[in-house]
Amino acid sequence: MFDNKEQFKKAFLSKLEMSVGKSFEETSPQDQYHVLGNMIREYISTNWIKTNQVYHSTEAKQVYYLSIEFLLGRIMGSNILNLGIGDVVEEGLRDLGISLDDLESNEPDSALGNGGLGRLAACFMDSLASLDLPGHGCGIRYKHGLFEQKIVNGVQVEYPELWLQNGQVWEVRKSDLSVEVPFWGKVESFEDEQGRLRFRHRDAEPIMAVPYDIPVVGYQTETVNTLRLWNAEPANVPFHDDIMRYKRETEMVSEFLYPDDAEDSGKILRLKQQYFLVRASLNSILNSFRKKQKDIRELPNYVSIHINDTHPVLAIPELMRILLDEEMLPWEEAWDITVQTISYTNHTTLSEALEKWPVRLFQPLLPRIYMIVEEINERFCKELWERYPGQWQRIEDMAIIAHDQVKMAHLALVGTHSTNGVAYLHTEILKKREMNNFYEIFPERFNNKTNGITHRRWLMKSNPALTGLITESIGDKWKVEPPLLKELEHYKDDAAFLEQLEKVKHENKVKLAERIFQQNQIKVNLDSIFDVQVKRLHAYKRQLLNVLHIMYLYNRMKEDPSFRPHPRTFIFGAKASPGYYYAKKIIKLINTVAEKVNNDKTTNDYLKVVFLENYRVSLAEEIFPAAEVSEQISTASKEASGTGNMKFMMNGALTIGTMDGANVEIFERVGKDNIFIFGMTSEEVMNYQANGGYHSSEYYMLDRRIHEAVNQLVNGFFPNTNGMFDVIYDSLLIENDQYFVLRDFDSYVKTQEKVSNAYQDKKGWNKSSVVNIANSGFFSSDRTITEYANDIWHVKPVNSPIIKA
Ligand code: GL2
Q1: Integer CA distances (angstroms), 513 to 156, 605, 754, in order
Q2: Do residues 69 and 81 share a domain?
Q3: How many structural domains is the chain composed of?
Q4: For residues 786 and 776, what is the distance between their CA atoms, to the nearest angstrom?
Q5: pLDDT for 80-128, tens place per residue?
Q6: Pairing of strands 419-421, 446-448
Q7: 70 shares a domain with 42
């Protein structure tokens, strides 16, 4: 049905009429989207079945990627691209008077994630399939993904996200593969016929995990992998004292991504979600393995289980439970298999993000799992004692259970054979500082896997004009071998190419400007520099530094009419966690500054501020292609990697950033002339933190620009904001500016001046842009996934020809 345009049109029209029962003229874009989606899914299904058959029969090792988040975004466009049916579909629809872009915009984003970590998981799924690797995603089918953000009077308001409301065309419910997940109850010991001590979980309250499978199509290959998302539903229990409570509590498990965990009830819910994901996934993994009739001791040769951050870390005690209680292996053997099978990625060094669960909640909810964690802890502490006799403090610091809390990261470090960081610098910080104690014991387990992004979505799909230009110049092999983008460097002095590149950027800026006008009714200057900071709102990411710089530019222009920098449009997009008061204030501040400067006729030819509401994957796809400056300004040592930085680079934006996360590796690749680095190094930050010596008030007192902008937060400069920004003012001055915003201010301003100056030489700027694109191939997630496959998982491609056979 996708072989040629005429066939496609015929199939599309007939399916449209059959499935919605309307004549073509009466159908809505929603109807059309659903029909096209269903056609594509049907088209995929032959290869999906074949791939699964091969995976069932092959001896090849399989990898299972467990993640509490998968931030997929829209699925249709990526499938069309990967299947290579874009031309047929686009032309066929055009004949019918339908634009494919418009039709795609009817698809809600699958927003089962918050930010980088969840988007990384989605990029990895795309790379696994595209590289013909047998990789399966395991996650949760949240009824509501990340909230929808509306900005009302400059303030973030959260609405529930409704991606399932109109039905999901990409998923297939497989209720026959449902798994029971038990909570609560108690553990009984008993002696079996052979006189062995055994355990059974009694009086548990089971809930049902029902899988929904989403096909993951590889690029130009017949491999179609599976992302399995588990839905929580009531189990068929014979009797229940309070059936309504049971139903409600059960369904809550897959209701929301990251329920607020300030209260105990929220903590229990999160822990339930984590065990739910792990129990259901491991059950299904082990079922597939058992069908191959191999000895269970062979598990690590056939199966690799990867835990994306600590959220799925209960996979460790759960696999132990299966091996001990179901397979009846002795502890040592079970432990060996578990450690060999599971691997772990750490995504942050922020201590507040390292999960800890109170024993008083953990133990009653998961009694058997808790017993196992206790045993793991005891054995580990014994080893520590033998290694470090008398060093109580060290042992306490490293224990898995301490101070009535279960430390999930410690469990992950002890119970897996591999711990990786997500950028070179981050891994070094883990080894030398944050997890140095563990590195000393298990040095061979630590390794780095610098993050990546799928160039298919973030360049080929979202930036067709640039994709076309690159392909015209260097051919299209780079699409399957992104490091070949390097060949673009030959064009960095080619005037015609640079002109073309500028034209592409300009067209993309026009499109974004239209979007900005449509959403915000702000007219932006197309010759202004599009300077973009899009990412989660967090103090360490320092959106505040960006805002203070904007305030300074504004103040200086007001004061000095001869000071008129190159026009800039500062574009922001960010969601703040609903309970994160400070972050929400920063959003309000950005919008307040926008209101002020955008409406000041004396300066607004030079300065515009735009906050695009509801930042999400599909909006990001419109933003990156139009960006010229990429703001990566986190406090050094705090951003584990960043992945937005890579998307900007790949689309030709120049980075202004600190030496943090993967910025360091971008710097190494493009060279100092093609990136704008400023601010403290991670060493300096960490030394200050260890030894003190930073006094933010000194910067406030001595730097007039800082003094003025910081005062403006609280002195009525912004009308009707009485007391509104006190918390920001206090964070800078009373709390001594934890993220060194004021300390880096001067360096940031100077570097921004360099950015402006560099932009005056448009040819030089475009040249730098080429160097960025040309060196972005390294940051394809295909490279990252190849490294995981070779170094951690030891899985090999199961080639398309095998599937064809
Ligand atoms: C994060 C890091 O903060 C971010 O720097 C990194 O790029 C991603 C992916 O590795 O992981 N850690 C985390 O908890 N979230 C991230 O985005 N949410």
Answers
A1: 22, 15, 25
A2: no
A3: 3
A4: 16
A5: 999 999 999 999 999 999 999 999 999 999 999 999 999 999 999 999 9
A6: parallel
A7: no
Amino acid at 612: L
CA distance 178 to 420: 32
* Residue 467 shares a structural domain with residue 334: no
- Max distance between CA atoms of the chain, in angstroms, equals 93
Contact of 534 with 644, CB cutoff 8 Å: yes
- Please identify which residue in the block is written with the tokens 């990786």: 420
Residues 760 and 743 in one domain: yes
- Whole-angstrom Cα distance, residue 287 to residue 683? 48
* Catalytic-residue membership of 347: yes
101 and 132 both lie in a single domain? no
Instruction: Name the amino acid, one letter, at 749.
Output: V
Give which of 419, 646, 634, 678 is closest to 544, Cα–Cα: 634
Running DSSP on this structure, what letter comes out for residue 674? G
What's the ipTM?
A: 0.99
CATH of the domain at 597: 3.40.50.2000
- The answer to whether residues 425 and 547 belong to one domain is no
**Tens-digit pLDDT profile for residues 5-63:** 999 999 999 999 999 888 999 999 999 999 999 999 999 999 999 999 999 999 999 99
- The two tokens of residue 619 are 């909006």
Active-site residue (options: 74, 228, 647, 767)? 647
CA distance 660 to 663: 6
- What separation in Å is there between the alpha carbon of 85 and the centre of ligand 1? 33
Find the domain containing 134 and state its range. Answer: 63-74+115-448+787-804
Query: Are β-strands 224-234 and 205-217 bridged in parallel, bridged antiparallel, or unpaired?
Result: antiparallel
Cβ–ligand 1 contact at 661 (below 6 Å) = yes
* Whether residues 338 and 431 fall in one domain: yes
Q: Which residues pair with 187 in a beta bridge?
A: 201
Asked if 305 and 795 touch (Cβ cutoff 8 Å), the reply is: no
Whether 535 is catalytic: yes
224-273 tens-digit pLDDT: 999 999 999 999 877 667 888 999 999 999 999 987 788 999 999 999 99
Is the shortest distance between the CB of 1 and ligand 1 below 6 Å?
no
Residues 88 and 219 in one domain: no
